[in-house]
Amino acid sequence: MFKKILVANRGEIALRVICACKELGIRTVAIYSEADRNSLPVRFADEAICIGPPQISQSYLNIPAVISAAEIANVEAIHPGYGLLSENANFAEVVETCGIKFIGPSPEIIRLMGEKEKARAAMKKAGVPILPGSDGIVASELEAAEWTHQVGFPVIIKASAGGGGRGMRIVRSEQELPALFKAASAEAAAAFGNGDLYMEKYVERPRHIEFQILADAYGNVISLGERECSIQRRHQKLLEESPSTRMTPELREQIGAILAKSLSAIGYVNAGTVEFLMDDNERLYFIEMNTRIQVEHPVTEMVTDVDLVKSQILLAAGERLPDVLHGPILPRGHAIECRINAEHPEKFTPSAGKITAFHPPGGTGVRIDTAAYAEGVIPPYYDSLIAKLVVRGKDRDEAISRMARALEMFIVEGIYTTIPLHRRILADPDFRGGRIDTTYIEKLFATGKKESAA
Ligand code: ADP
Fold first, then answer.
1. 158 Cα–ligand 1 center, Å
2. Is 405 annotated as catalytic?
3. Domains, the chain, with CATH or none
4. Cβ neighbours of residue 216 under 8 Å, at least 6 residues apart?
5. pLDDT tens across 348-401, in order?
6. Disulfide: which of 53, 213, 399, 453 matches 334 by Cβ 3.0-4.6 Å?
């Protein structure tokens, strides 16, 4: 087992990894930018090294600085968290070249899944259902038009290197295709330094359903079931739950078995998430695979009792899946996660600044993953996620009422947060009735349903 791990991230996920290491008896090294000097990961890690100024390009994304810190601290492994360098194949390669274990799959697998049209092809070959789409990169507007004629509108243009919902455009008619193609390409080039695009059939009002998997280095792969992530704004998730109200035990088992077989065949190791869209006929189509821990991993942890971050570390250390899991996965109850972002709840503009009061809720079945605290400052340079409020109930109804009361008792003052938006969602009869899809938030705002005091 590793004796010392460097956590190449910040905020709540850095703290989450530190928690896992403490429970495993592993020493931790935090890295931080000048803006995060007073952060909780710095306080709770055994060692902390400043790696640069606030801008992520000069600190958390600065590979030489991260590697130097790892070498100075003499760590045996690096946990990348999510975002930042977590899906950067070059980083994973440099880490391994330095004789340090990267806690995640191999650089080859990260690279394959990072080029989304290649990931589609690999999954298709392995027997995973995918949407009709371009086989590879669509190089020009002309090619895009030709391809669209074959499958018919609507289609969605997506960035090969995509993430965070950027570089995506829905196209409903021939006339708008050239302008949307150019806009997607420019957005992708600016966001990812790569303007390559591919296309897929657009599914109207789909559900976003993803499967959590764990894999060891000996070909064993297991699915831990699904998360329903249809509550999104601008293709970014806001609230997730498990199980999905639309999933049947048969479909769960069928997809789990296909994924176990296909990911074992490509040599996938460590944790991963396979994302699907579900259409009106309950058919699932692969859209992408994330080769890292997800923001929303706690909902799976709450229903399965498996610590996914500890599992990642144990699997990276070469342990076998049966030894990591200690028996069969028996999901129980229902879990919901609300992403509490430092944002205006209706305008969604970022809201950095000093938190003047902070009271997180507690009680049975409530979990909070956060690195925020009273008098702490939310810097303007980073992701707006400041806390994840997660609850578990014996069923969906209990999880909903527990979440509603926990949101009511969550006090954050000094900055705007998405708490009022979540209260509005939790009080909405459509959400309560499970009538949700990826256009839910748009509809909620269009109908102007108001937050209830409940
Ligand atoms: P990213 O990597 O940028 O997050 P994804 O491929 O994971 O992109 O898609 C993000 C979201 O965009 C999905 O959850 C869904 O809401 C929407 N989306 C993506 N592809 C399609 C599609 N073919 N049809 C309908 N919606 C889609």
1. 8
2. no
3. 4-103 (3.40.50.20), 132-201 (3.30.1490.20), 207-453 (3.30.470.20)
4. 269, 315, 319, 320, 321, 324
5. 899 999 999 999 999 999 999 999 999 999 999 999 999 999 999 999 999 999
6. 399
